[in-house]
Write a structure and sequence with these properties.
This protein is 18% helix and 18% strand. By secondary structure, it is an alpha+beta fold. It has one domain. Bound molecules: iron/sulfur cluster (SF4).
Length: 66
C-alpha cells in the first residue's frame, strides 16, 4: 500500500483496480478498470477498496469513528 503523508486512504493505491507495472527500473501506476495511468495518491469517486481497507472501514464505522 502506497500512501502519501497526510492523504486519506481513499486513494488509487488502496483500490482493487490499482496496478503497478515496472519496466527497466521505471515504475508506473495504472487503473486496470479505466486503462489510464494514475498516481497512488489520486482520489476518485470510482474507488473500490481492497478487502483489507474495506474491513478497516467497517471496523471504524462500528466504532463510530467514520
Ligand atoms: S481511477 Fe478509480 S477505479 Fe481506477 S484505481 Fe483509481 S480509484 Fe480505482
Amino acid at each position: 500500500m502506497i500512501l502519501e503523508k497526510g492523504k486519506t486512504f481513499k486513494v488509487c493505491s488502496t483500490c482493487i483496480n490499482f496496478l503497478i507495472k515496472e519496466t527497466d527500473g521505471n515504475r508506473k501506476f495504472y487503473c486496470g478498470r479505466l486503462g489510464y495511468e494514475t498516481k497512488p495518491y489520486y482520489s476518485f469517486n470510482c474507488w473500490d477498496p481492497i478487502p483489507k481497507v474495506k474491513k478497516l472501514l467497517e471496523k471504524r464505522k462500528r466504532e463510530g469513528r467514520l
